[in-house]
Amino acid sequence: MATAGMTPAGPAPAATTAPQPARAANGPVTTAPLKPNQIARAEGRSPIIPPGIQPAALTAVLALLIAVAAPLARPVLCVPVVLLQAVTAAGWFRLNGMWPARQGIALAFLGGVTTDVALLATPHEDAPLVALGTLGVWCLLVLVLQLRNRSSADERMYALTAGLTSSALAVLASGQLAADPNAVVVGAAAVALATLARAVPLPSVVSLVIALLAAAGAGIAAGQLTGMGQSGAVLGLAAGGCALIGLRVASYDYPSRFVHMTAGVALPLALAAPAVYVLGRALG
């Protein structure tokens, strides 16, 4: 992969570094404002900053699109899934401090789209083989692309792991196409409510419990509408738990608005896709 496209961004300044004073031409001494994560470190708090309400709202909108499209037809569902894969691929590279990374993002996104096309052409039960086959081919493509990278050994390894992980996440997001439509509706509803509940400014433990309860409640409600019944609570709880893991991953040490509006939006739905597929088949 080209060096310019995959070189990690430089580390953010440590919170303990005092801001450099800057004297205006005819004014008082001013200091550069600290970033939120730097202030948190200086105050002894965690520098992990959750994405917040705006990314959670976008996740809920994307989940709603998936839930509405799921009962219609797989080609219709493919539209929001492709959007999810695009945001996932871009967000993961930026989350790892790599920007721009056009080749890596394009390759990961293409892996997800290839999986979508293959899933549309095969029965539901062949989805695991399709996903594994596509992921195996894409691992080889990522390795071949890295042969063009003339960066240092550490940077090449960093770029390789980011490319492989991004491709795997894009392929995992395709699980929405392979899952039972009723399970997709239940999982999408659970992810939407879990992310919204987690964004409410409450103590961490309280917020976590409320988010999981909201996911289970959404699973029950959606289960009644789709015919899954009370088993929707189990699926909703699992999907909501995966969504919260995605939010935690997106709460990067040095977060940016771009990270929150991409990885923070996409990872909850992308990580929930395998749970929706597996539990949908088991409980269906």
Automatic annotation (TrEMBL):
UniProt keyword Aminoacyl-tRNA synthetase, yes or no: no
Keywords assigned: Membrane, Transmembrane, Transmembrane helix
Membrane-crossing residue ranges in chain numbering: 72-93, 105-121, 127-145, 157-179, 199-221, 233-252, 258-279
Record bears the keyword DNA repair: no
Residues covered by region (Disordered): 1-34
Composition-biased stretches (Low complexity): 1-25
Protein name, per record: Integral membrane protein
